[in-house]
């Protein structure tokens, strides 16, 4: 069976959320004839997830692959998934997130036309939408958006155009920035979205998150300087500024990084 789209999902401590993530694929309103999709679960916690997988529609197949250790990292997990992927195009979904109901149709159409597509990211906390992050220029995502609004954007992209993920925190952001650096701007779908769910134990809630993310951003600046992609490095410099401002803001507010971003954007500071 020819696979058109491979969806890579790194899995770590996700028994409470993985079913919702897969169901958001399974319940897609598909409007593309003969499209075949494979889900690739990369298990990075050594646990069994077979009983958490719902019955899949006939246009979806699934692979369950285990990493060679425990918590080897999402970058490593995504790279394993890429090596096992048979699809011409690659989509990315985290195990605690979801896709809107026509995400595949609209993203695939756009990616098939331009080789890559993005969607707005909607942030949800406790089932309530906090904010929707989009590009500053309506209908497009640009490299400067990565520094302006430091949240995650997830591409659907031609497999051959992807680079290997770094096994450093925010490796998905770096890859997105690298993709955007090659183009002036990239088209975004308008009516569909990537739903990012903030969990009680989300990374952004963990003690020391700001320190860890600052180290990661600094590493990317060094990598960018070495690879002579200074315009990407500048976006991580801006992210470090946001991170510093978040630390100061959080001294008086007990919130997540996304709460801080929402506060900044609503006040038109970004």
User: Into which percent range does the helicity of residues fall?
Assistant: 25-40%
Q: Give the overall average pLDDT.
A: 91
User: In oligomeric terms, what are we looking at?
Assistant: single chain
What is the ordering of alpha helices and beta strands? EHEEHEEHEEEEHEHEEHHH
Can you put this structure into words, describing what you see?
The protein is α/β, with parallel strands linked by helices. It has one domain (5-203): Spore Coat Polysaccharide Biosynthesis Protein SpsA, Chain A (Alpha-Beta Complex). The protein has helices at 18-26, 74-84, 103-114, 143-148, 171-181, 209-226, 230-249, 257-266, and strands spanning 5-11, 37-43, 60-66, 89-92, 98-99, 116-117, 121-125, 128-133, 140-141, 156-158, 186-187, 194-198. The strands form 3 sheets. The protein has a 6-stranded mixed sheet, with helices on both faces. A 4-stranded mixed sheet has the order 5-12-7-8. The chain has a two-stranded antiparallel sheet with strand order 9-11. Helix 1 (18-26) links the parallel strand 1 (5-11) and strand 2 (37-43).
């Amino acid at each position: 069976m020819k696979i058109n789209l491979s969806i890579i999902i790194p899995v770590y401590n996700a028994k409470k959320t993985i079913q919702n993530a897969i169901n958001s694929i399974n319940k897609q309103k598909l409007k593309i004839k003969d499209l075949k999709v494979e889900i690739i679960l990369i298990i990075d916690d050594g646990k069994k997830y077979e009983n958490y997988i719902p019955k899949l529609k006939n246009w979806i197949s699934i692979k369950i692959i285990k990493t060679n250790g425990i918590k080897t990292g999402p970058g490593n997990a995504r790279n394993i998934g890429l090596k096992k992927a048979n699809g011409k195009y690659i989509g990315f979904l985290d195990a605690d997130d979801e896709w809107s109901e026509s995400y595949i149709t609209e993203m695939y159409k756009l990616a098939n036309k331009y080789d890559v597509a993005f969607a707005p990211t909607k942030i949800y906390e406790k089932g309530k939408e906090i904010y929707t992050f989009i590009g500053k220029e309506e209908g497009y995502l640009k490299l400067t958006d990565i520094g302006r609004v430091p949240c995650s954007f997830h591409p659907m992209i031609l497999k051959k155009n992807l680079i290997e993920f770094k096994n450093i925190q925010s490796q998905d952001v770096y890859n997105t920035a690298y993709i955007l650096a090659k183009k002036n701007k990239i088209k975004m779908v308008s009516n569909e979205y990537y739903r990012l769910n903030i969990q009680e134990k989300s990374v952004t809630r963990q003690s020391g998150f700001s320190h860890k993310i600052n180290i990661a951003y600094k590493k990317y600046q060094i990598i960018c300087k070495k690879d002579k992609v200074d315009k990407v490095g500048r976006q991580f410099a801006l992210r470090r500024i946001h991170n510093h401002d978040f630390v100061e803001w959080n001294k008086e507010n007990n919130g997540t990084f996304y709460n801080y971003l929402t506060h900044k954007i609503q006040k038109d500071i970004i």
